[in-house]
Amino acid sequence: MKLFDTHAHLLDEAFDPDRDAVIASLPGQGVAHVMECCCDEAGIDRVIELVERVPFFYGSAGVHPHSADEWSQDTAAHITRALQHERMLAVGEIGLDYHYDFSPRDVQKRVLDEQLSLANELNRPVILHDREAHGDMMDLLRAHKNGLKGIMHCFSGSYELAKECIDLGLYVAFGGALTFKNAVRPIDVARRLPLDRLLIETDCPYMTPVPFRGQRNDPGRIHLTLEKMAFVRGEEIELLADALYRNALNVYEIAEL
Ligand code: NI
Predict the structure, then answer these.
(1) CA 21 to the chain's CA centroid
(2) The pTM is what?
(3) What is the dihedral of CA 113, 118, 121, 122, to 10 degrees?
(4) Is the pLDDT confidence value at 257 over 70?
(5) CA of residue 7 to ligand 1 center, whole Å
(6) What's the gap in Å between 39 CA and the centre of ligand 1?
């Protein structure tokens, strides 16, 4: 059984004490690949350095809504250059976060709009973050629907919203929140969506699955989300794992023999 963590942040400072040991432990836990998601422009070159050092990692380049006000005219060129690297695959993570509002909303929208255009120009998938911003997010995605592809990460919306994301060309990813006791809506959505559009992720060091809530998360815990998804969908764990692994290769456009 091979697992693909489609969204992780091993470069987060939470891993400073033991990053290499955590990474070295992953293949033994069935984690075949990890997508390291970039959060800000300063992180782009760090992600490249990480994927060059760890052959089973892939990387993204992009500016998270928290850092949207750092966007400059040079940032798009920096992302474009980064994605020339053969294991730098996606524009992300990008989006809107109206929970924290660390950058003004009009700036968040403009920077997301620019990065959706850039991904389209480069013909790359996007990794989308949407927190309490469903309305504006969907308006922007509809405006960019031609050629749109990628992932709605850590999905928290309704089934109808998930269906519209899929109709717009996206995959829908679930993380540790699927294991939480109060996860009524994510469970309902994960149960009803078509198998060929589902993904799993950790978003580590955040979103730690039950029974480790409160501790640091890492890609070695992704099997807990897999097991919960298999339970709610009534599917065999191994068959589901194979399908999710194939979906991850498909969305990131990785040709694997
Ligand atoms: Ni993230």
Answers:
(1) 23
(2) 0.97
(3) -140
(4) no
(5) 6
(6) 8
